[in-house]
Amino acid sequence: MKKVDWEKADAMCDKLSAEQDVLVREIVTQISEKWTLWTMSVLARAGAPMRFSRVMEEVEGISQKSLTKTLRQLERGGLVTREVFAEVPPRVEYKITKLGEELLVQLHPMWLWTVTNVKRFEAARLKYAGNGRKNPWTRARVSR
Amino acid sequence: MKKVDWEKADAMCDKLSAEQDVLVREIVTQISEKWTLWTMSVLARAGAPMRFSRVMEEVEGISQKSLTKTLRQLERGGLVTREVFAEVPPRVEYKITKLGEELLVQLHPMWLWTVTNVKRFEAARLKYAGNGRKNPWTRARVSR
DNA sequence: CTTCATAGTTACCTCCAGGTAAGTACACGC
DNA sequence: GCGTGTACTTACCTGGAGGTAACTATGAAG
User: What confidence score (pLDDT) does residue B130 get?
Assistant: First the structure.
């Protein structure tokens, strides 16, 4: 089995400035928010600029407020671009950036792995359900 | 640049049962929780069983309550094992599973990529800060 | 004068993650 | 009989994510 090279990981972390460290955490935090990945993948699949209302149709269930917030954060992080057209009614187009697409490419293997290994997770669940899970001291009868 | 094969991804999703679909979401949700990855990586680095209190020392800042919850979820998902020893005071040992280690291996490339590309994110932030960001209709003067 | 379409913003509310602090059970050493 | 060590559980509290619904600006069409 492949292993994680923790030494190398640590070495890379040490090279980061305090601000960069914060930035990495922010990025990770952001992509773990409710609608972020879904929104990005919608934009990535389209490949072309999309209007706000169009994105909202594709990301089923999202509210205007959340979509605005999500897109703003993605723009701020350089993962999507936002272009405003001076028209009435307003037209605003969003498009995924190269950086954004690359991020998705990085994420994809792990998503794939998860899906292909669902059965192992299912098995673990079943096994867990069978355990009687008690506090340790409820069976503490033997001393050290 | 590498691209994501959306067709294949969709095809894989279609093969999942409704329960499996829920499960995948749960897994992803769980690993995006505050302490999950940190806790897992501590266990993975150790490679050996660790007591509750020892884990708590390594995962700086976590509360007892959160550690308990995190470990329970990891156990339920089959990512760590939990072994209770019938002693007083109690001894409980946690250890990462093969499944858990594999998950970390999947995640690592993306983490590495993020760290090596911080500068691009920094640049995006700076650029964003420079934009005057207004409502679209504040400059809507030209009709379509 | 009203309606429509678009892309927001804002006020208000609810839910839940997660923190703090105290309690619990047990045997041992003093 | 009191403190100590361990692995929890429980009650209480706070902040923030995210939902709903109403409001905003603008020009064209009716």
Answer: 74
The two beta strands, A80-85 and B50-51, are unpaired
Strands (E), A5-124: 50-51, 80-85, 91-96
| Protein-covered nucleotides on strand C (Cβ within 7 A) | 5-11, 17-22, 24-28
Nucleotide lying nearest to B136, CA to C1' measure: C7
Angle between helices A118-130 and A98-116 (to 10 degrees): 50
Interface probe with B: pick from A88, A116, A142, most Cβ of B within 10 Å? A88
Q: Is the CB of A29 under 7 A from strand D?
A: no
Write down all domains in chain B, each with its CATH number in brackets.
6-130 (1.10.10.10)
- The 10s digit of each residue's pLDDT in A54-81 is 999 999 999 999 999 999 999 999 999 9
Q: What pLDDT shows up at residue A93?
A: 98
